Amino acid sequence: MEHTNNVKLDLAGIGVGPFNLSVAALLADKPQISSRFFESRDSFAWHPGLLLDNTHMQTMFLKDLVTAVNPQSRYSFLNYLVQNKKFYRFLSAELQCISRPEFSDYLAWAAHQLENVQFSTKVEHVEYNGENFTLHTSQGSYQADNLCIGTGKVPAIPDCAKAHISERVFHAAEIGLRERDFTGKRVMIIGGGQSGADIFINALQHKWGKPQSLDWLSRRSNYQPLDEAAFTNEFFTPDYVDAFVNLSPEVKQQEVTNQKLTSDGITQKALLTIYQELYHRFDVLKEDKWVRLLPHRTLTQMSSLGNSFQLTASNALGQSMETHQADIVILATGFEAPYPACLDSILPLFDLDQHNRYQMTPDFEIQWQGQQRNKIFAVNAGMHTHGIAEPQLSLMAWRSARIINSLVGQAVFDTESGQGMIDWLSPSALVEQLVA
Ligand SMILES: Cc1cc2nc3c(=O)[nH]c(=O)nc-3n(C[C@H](O)[C@H](O)[C@H](O)COP(=O)(O)OP(=O)(O)OC[C@H]3O[C@@H](n4cnc5c(N)ncnc54)[C@H](O)[C@@H]3O)c2cc1C
């Protein structure tokens, strides 16, 4: 029988990735708000299958759990450096961007100190009785007045690959979770984003043994860089998000589409590492060519061929179909966000939009039937409502502060960030929008 806890929470968090962890860390200084964040894993892990060698952050370390709104918090990255006695060496290392293993270590350091984070607790089912929520978990049930959904995303697998998922065909997110041996195998990576690049670098450097061949297939027209220019970074500011939330759904969609590479390109550092490694192997050491770069191709079909696989791809440049063969296929094909299964019974109460997506207020609150009494916040669930910063770390502390302010109904955190560099919407445009 399920154990019922007598705890009544102001806020229950579902999932503890970086985003809900940020909310939890900011709430640690607000003991008047009772909160607990439930995580199914036994300990903190940040995309553990992708914590490979040579993987670096796409964002600066000051974009941590708390600093943007509470630099005095003990859960800042700077405090992590000081407490772990590496502050001076960190400075001397002059790291332009830190490694993902280090940021992951920082997140775990914070998570394991926080008393409002509870591991080994999977939220299985959430019910609403008109007054509050009951969370049925693997460790008993809990009651809460408000929720914050932070369950993250799950691997997206192309339809044609689904029937082949196995030890030899797997999503990028799985690669580091078990021993791999690519020695003498034909390896193909599908997907030209950052994860594809990270895996390509490691395979090129024989992390999993020396493959017979290594192909990197991408739908994009080339191996395209993340746009990290100064003005592009303005998209990752509160100012831009505040302008974005007031746009029409059509304009929002257009903005997100136009900004694809701003969030999904490959870092310059990774691109240069790859280019230099290829140059060294094939132009300096004169190794026989065992690597192929295949941009402009979309995987359309996959079939088994004995112990290997035949992959069909359309080549947008040549306007032709191609077939390739591989023994190992790694799908660096991104992530998707289905509704968390634990919300099944309350989902019918949500006001979804015409594309069945959450509709959200500027304060990251899902619009739903019980909203006047109980709030449901969601993080990493509203790129369509808040723009491309939403799945990113850049504004997580600011977003967490907005959520907490909305939860308590007053500005316990100052979320004003000063006037931005760019006038996204001039006052007259705002007036016209209101009139229309
Ligand atoms: C490899 C990789 C590198 C990235 N690097 C960067 C970067 O450098 N900079 C940047 O800005 N962004 C980066 N991102 C994007 C983004 O910051 C991360 O995806 C981030 O982890 C998202 O955080 P999250 O909290 O939404 O989800 P997640 O990190 O996915 O965490 C969700 C958590 O919820 C738990 N959970 C799910 N369901 C339940 C349940 N029912 N009950 C209890 N627990 C549950 C899961 O176990 C998981 O721990 C990266 C993404 C990836 C995949």
TrEMBL record:
- Which co-factors does it depend on? FAD
Entry-linked Gene3D superfamilies: FAD/NAD(P)-binding domain
Q: According to its UniProt record, which protein family does this protein belong to?
A: Belongs to the lysine N(6)-hydroxylase/L-ornithine N(5)-oxygenase family.
Please name the Pfam families in this protein's record: Lys_Orn_oxgnase
Q: Does the keyword Transmembrane helix apply?
A: no
What superkingdom does the record give?
Bacteria
Pathways per UniProt: Siderophore biosynthesis
Name of the protein in question: Lysine 6-monooxygenase
- Organism equals Vibrio hepatarius
Kindly state which keywords UniProt assigns to this record, in alphabetical order: FAD, Flavoprotein, Monooxygenase, NADP, Oxidoreductase
Q: Name one GO molecular function term.
A: monooxygenase activity
